[in-house]
Amino acid sequence: MSDSTFIIPVKIDSVDRKQNIEYVLKFLSTYFADYRVIIGDSSIKEGLFDPGSHDYFYFGYDRVFHKTKILNKLIRLVSTPYVVEYDCDVVCNPCQIEKALNCIRSKFSIFVYPYDGRCAMIDRNKIDITEFKEEELKKLCLIESIDKNIYYGGIFCFIKRYFESCGLENENFIGWGKEDIERYYRLKKYDFLIDRVKGVLYHLNHFRGNDSDDKSENYINNCNEFDRIINMERVNISSWKNYD
């Protein structure tokens, strides 16, 4: 994993969120070796959770979580060729992440989701979030909890230089809503294939405040920006064919 960096944006807005990111960091340290994690924090103050030995940057308080901006700052700090954008509230079978990274290492893919679009919403009362245990992780697959929607966020793996050439994340998206699916459709405008690995993503449910649902004050603006991208003409890709 020395060729890959996990980047995690976070804003601690509840006890749930603090427990979730600490759970995720324990998950990563259990299953991966020789990897780097860079955490970008925009909580009301720094030091609200334990980042362990990982690289930690406090970017100042965001009243409305500007995740896309923080992700771009983190991507620019990455020195490895491969990047894993990782939300602080999700886990999946670690083999799925390994398969996704192997796809981009082999240049078979440039952008890969390490899950097939299914997302299971995990009840906090059914798993001990306060302490990571492998046997608890195995209990996550509750078929009745799988959402019928297709998901585009959570974890996203890519070759850094290609994503840089596409403009990175769209910072016109502020707060909750549409930023993940916009990235997918914008990359499709560049005619890139975006692959998925078979398997489920598990979302650790949490308190939902202003940064977590469609009541966010920027949600309407995000929807308008998404519509703009959807209606954008496809990019002339002749110059991409020999990009290596």
Question: Would you write up a description of this structure?
Answer:
This protein is of the alpha/beta class and about 240 residues long. The protein has one domain: Alpha-Beta Complex (Spore Coat Polysaccharide Biosynthesis Protein SpsA, Chain A), CATH 3.90.550.10. It is built from seven helices and eleven strands. The chain has a seven-stranded mixed beta sheet, sandwiched between helices. α1 links the parallel β1 and β2. α6 packs parallel to α7. It is globular and about 50 Å long. The C terminus is likely disordered.
Tags for this entry?
7 helices; alpha/beta; Spore Coat Polysaccharide Biosynthesis Protein SpsA, Chain A; 244 residues; seven-stranded mixed sheet; four-stranded mixed sheet
CATH architecture: Alpha-Beta Complex
> What are the low-pLDDT stretches, counting only 5+ consecutive residues below 50?
238-244
Could you name the CATH homologous superfamily?
Spore Coat Polysaccharide Biosynthesis Protein SpsA, Chain A
Strand content: 15-25%
Spatial strand arrangement across the major sheet:
3-2-1-4-9-6-10
Q: Oligomerization state of this entry? A: single chain
> Strand-and-helix sequence, N→C?
EHEEHEEHEEHEEHHEEH
Number of individual domains:
1
In helices, the fraction of residues equals 25-40%
Span between N and C termini? 22 Å
Cα shape: globular
Q: Rg to the nearest angstrom?
A: 17 Å
Mean pLDDT: 88
The count of strands amounts to: 11
Work out the helix count. 7
CATH topology: Spore Coat Polysaccharide Biosynthesis Protein SpsA, Chain A
Classify the secondary structure makeup into a structural class. alpha/beta
Q: Specify the biggest β-sheet.
A: 7 strands, mixed
CATH class: Alpha Beta
